[in-house]
Amino acid sequence: MTATVTKPQYEIKDIALAPQGKQRIEWAGREMPVLRQIQERFAQEKPFAGIRLIACCHVTTETAHLAIALKNGGADAILIASNPLSTQDDVAASLVADYGIPVFAIKGEDNDTYHRHVNIALDHHPNIIIDDGSDVTATLVAQRQDQISEIIGTTEETTTGIVRLQAMFNDGVLSFPAMNVNDADTKHFFDNRYGTGQSTLDGIIRATNILLAGKTLVVAGYGWCGKGVALRGRGMGANVIVTEIDPTRAIEAVMDGFRVMPMIEAASLGDVFVTVTGNKHVIRPEHFAVMKDGAIVCNSGHFDIEIDLKSLGAQANEVKEVRNFTQQYSLPSGKSIIVLGEGRLVNLAAAEGHPSAVMDMSFANQALACEYLVKNKGSLAPGLHSIPTEVDREIARLKLNAMNIQIDSLTPEQIEYLNSWNAGT
Length: 425
Hints:
The protein has two domains: 15-187 and 353-402, Adenosylhomocysteinase-like (Rossmann fold); 196-349, Rossmann fold (3-Layer(aba) Sandwich), CATH 3.40.50. Helix 5 packs across helix 6 (135-143). Helices cover 43% and strands 16% of the residues. The longest helix has 24 residues, at 185-208. The chain has an eight-stranded mixed β-sheet, covered by helices on one side. It has a seven-stranded parallel β-sheet with strand order 3-2-1-4-5-6-15, sandwiched between helices. It is of the alpha/beta class. May play a key role in the regulation of the intracellular concentration of adenosylhomocysteine. GO terms for molecular function: hydrolase activity. NAD(+) binds at residues 158-160, 192, 221-226, 244, 279, 300-302, 347.
């Protein structure tokens, strides 16, 4: 007789942490009015009735509200962590105990556990995937092609994930639609610039307790995340240097008042380094070799490969933790390099991630992107799709209303003028 295999219902650190987590989830909700309005509508309309959904996200207080909104909308949802160091264990416990949402996430989980959780999620046979870095989608198309026919679509909100999805499509393996949440105006203008900017510096300060004023801060990459880090760094009194590979962004950084130079030149000048490029080995052995003693290196890009930590570890005589999420690599030259958060997202490894008010818009985009996929099931072509402009603007409108901010409307005369080619001047 064949034994019955019982699937795990959740895998978290400690269910007893739930009361603390629930309190923090409720606190975050005070700053998330847009998602709250969407959640209330979902609860009435049930747009995800009969839909199996998995979300691979940073398990934080803000993500909790997205998961609750999806469940209230009728989704049979599972949540797993998208990063080993970003999980808030008390939040995971509350989602399980108080909201009945299966969670597979433990802060500090190793890579084997992470990949096992990815496969547990795929065992759910999802119709929709909410991805953060496209690991789940990549695993699906590489290892579980028999499940592709069950997929309505996926959503992605990181630059790294969008690059991977485009590569999958170019290789002919992305055979279903993917919503590009990352490039929605109400996501990257605010989440990337204001969220990453503030939370990255928050992570650096919590991990080190250094004074940024007077320090030289090197920001690798001047996309929206890099702009946010550079602007916030300057606002706290740091002298900011930007490194770039894109000439247009480099000019923009110069015009914004920052010094721009190659990393090999910046490496000897910087006190603190932040990578936000989405690429690998942005800081390499030749850069470590010329850094100051005690230089602080961290990453705010999605994956932990932006800093070549394997080569740094191979050079080091000793690696020791000198503070929480702060490791000191002692080199044969006698100097040391400080690495924060094991090279993973410093804002989530050493702090609490983006403020709730910013994630309110990002997760509103995620929720509405999922609804859009369901409403347009079977009619969207494979590949990347932008968030519809009307959805983007509706999120902005809801946010403004929640902030009690009013804006102008076009008059009939102005509408006629904008839609006419012969009105002239």
